């Protein structure tokens, strides 16, 4: 597995072809997923290792990708922490008991990953038996996870979260501290079960100013990456909306930085240093465009990235209703591309 193009690219080593995989490569854009979803709820699928395994495998042969990602959700640890977790059709995730004051933060429960999230480890073990490409484990980053805990669901302004940072900084820090402890433990469990890389999703951290990121978030994200230094697998630091603070995101850590389409690949690589492995960064909406437009976008990224230390991916997850044929076509384009 150390010889796979995905792991090699994570380490900045030369590869025969640029590796490619997609965030949310399993999911609603696929017929087989929607069929299974008729019979099971999303949480049932996450918590039943045989189902999670099945869904993880669904896209692999169809697309021909270079890595798999375990089917789970960043919000799963919220249940054992005591906030509750529901997925209501249409509204996305709902956290029934949001954490908004000191008392609520103090009441959060410590998580025993093996006992309470062991179904993720079991699913990882099942998937590993079935595939010969690397399997990526994952978790939410401290900010993105805490924002769900504080807001109680999706948010546009993140006002409640930001006001906790500003008005009750010690409460925010206690919350982030508890979440970091859980995350390091949970991610180590995934590696012990067989995950060959990890990705930390900071999907919403781009809502912050660079200064607030540096002050209220960076030290905690860094704690997670530092806590994973000895796990022996590459760790990907994923965020969106962070083009104007990639230097700070890089300081937090991670072997690979994954960012969105709001910056050109060559600008990012110049900023980060060419030794820094990177992942990304096609706009997921491009996948709805005609094939020639997609090809132009894919080639532009590959050319600007250069051949070394780049994993091709989208800047964010595959959207619902994306044509499967177009996703397949991207994999072929990436694998056919000849670097100069
Ligand atoms: O990438 C993969 O294929 C692995 C599976 C995966 C899911 N969620 C499955 C899922 C991963 C890596 C995630 C991570 C995740 N979950 C993130 C970070 C990545 C990102 O997209 O920013 C976030 C923010 C969440 C929280 C979450 N879970 C949201 C916002 C939603 C979507 C709500 C909606 O209705 O659109 C979910 C649900 C979810 N997670 C689905 C899937 C396939 C859809 C559930 C369904 O089938 O209805």
* Spatial strand arrangement across the major sheet: 1-4-5-6-7-8-9
The total beta strand count reads 9
> Helix and strand string, N-terminal first?
HHHHEHEEHHHEHHHEHEHEHEHEH
**The CATH topology is what?**
TIM Barrel
Describe the structure.
- By secondary structure, the chain is α/β, with parallel strands linked by helices.
- The protein has a single domain (5-336), classed as Alpha-Beta Barrel (TIM Barrel), CATH 3.20.20.
- It has helices spanning 5-10, 31-39, 42-47, 49-63, 78-81, 102-107, 113-116, 118-130, 142-151, 159-167, 169-193, 210-227, 246-252, 265-272, 291-305, 324-336, and strands spanning 68-69, 86-88, 92-94, 135-140, 197-202, 235-239, 256-258, 278-282, 310-314.
- Strand 2 and strand 3 form a beta hairpin.
- The protein binds coproporphyrinogen III.
Which helices and strands occur, and which strands form pairs?
Blueprint: H1 5-10, H2 31-39, H3 42-47, H4 49-63, E1 68-69, H5 78-81, E2 86-88, E3 92-94, H6 102-107, H7 113-116, H8 118-130, E4 135-140, H9 142-151, H10 159-167, H11 169-193, E5 197-202, H12 210-227, E6 235-239, H13 246-252, E7 256-258, H14 265-272, E8 278-282, H15 291-305, E9 310-314, H16 324-336
Parallel strand pairs: 1-4, 4-5, 5-6, 6-7, 7-8, 8-9
Antiparallel strand pairs: 2-3
Helix pairs in contact: 4-8, 8-11, 9-11, 10-11, 11-12, 12-13, 14-15, 15-16
The chain binds coproporphyrinogen III (CP3).
Main attributes of the structure:
single chain; 340 residues; alpha/beta; TIM Barrel; seven-stranded parallel beta sheet; two-stranded antiparallel sheet; 16 helices; binds coproporphyrinogen III
């Amino acid at each position: 597995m150390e010889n796979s193009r995905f792991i090699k690219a994570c380490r900045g080593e030369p590869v025969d072809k640029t590796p490619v995989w997609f965030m949310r490569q399993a999911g609603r854009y696929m017929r087989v997923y929607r069929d299974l979803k008729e019979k099971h709820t999303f949480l049932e699928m996450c918590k039943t290792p045989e189902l999670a395994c099945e869904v993880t495998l669904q896209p692999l042969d169809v697309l021909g990708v270079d890595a798999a990602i375990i089917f789970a959700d960043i919000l799963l640890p919220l249940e054992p922490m005591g906030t509750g977790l529901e997925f209501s059709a249409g509204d996305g995730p709902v956290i029934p008991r949001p954490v908004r004051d000191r008392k609520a933060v103090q009441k959060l429960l410590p998580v025993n990953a093996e006992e309470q999230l062991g179904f993720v480890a079991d699913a990882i073990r099942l998937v590993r038996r079935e595939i010969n490409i690397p399997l990526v484990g994952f978790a939410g980053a401290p900010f993105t996870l805490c924002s769900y805990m504080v807001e109680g669901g999706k948010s546009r302004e993140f006002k409640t979260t930001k006001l906790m940072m500003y008005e009750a900084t010690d409460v925010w820090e206690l919350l982030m501290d508890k979440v970091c402890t859980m995350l390091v433990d949970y991610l180590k469990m995934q590696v012990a079960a067989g995950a060959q890389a990890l990705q930390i999703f900071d999907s919403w951290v781009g809502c912050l100013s660079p200064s607030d990121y540096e002050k209220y978030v960076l030290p905690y994200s860094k704690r997670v990456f530092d806590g994973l230094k000895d796990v022996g697998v590459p760790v990907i630091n994923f965020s969106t909306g962070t083009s104007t603070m990639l230097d700070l995101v890089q300081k937090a850590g991670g072997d690979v930085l994954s960012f969105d389409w709001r910056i050109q690949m060559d600008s990012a690589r110049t900023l980060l240093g060419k030794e820094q492995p990177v992942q990304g960064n096609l706009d997921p909406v491009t996948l709805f465009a005609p094939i020639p437009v997609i090809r132009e976008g894919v080639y532009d990224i590959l050319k600007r990235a250069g051949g070394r230390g780049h994993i091709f991916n989208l800047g964010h997850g595959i959207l619902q209703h994306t044509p499967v044929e177009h996703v397949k076509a991207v994999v072929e384009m990436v694998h056919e591309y000849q670097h100069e």
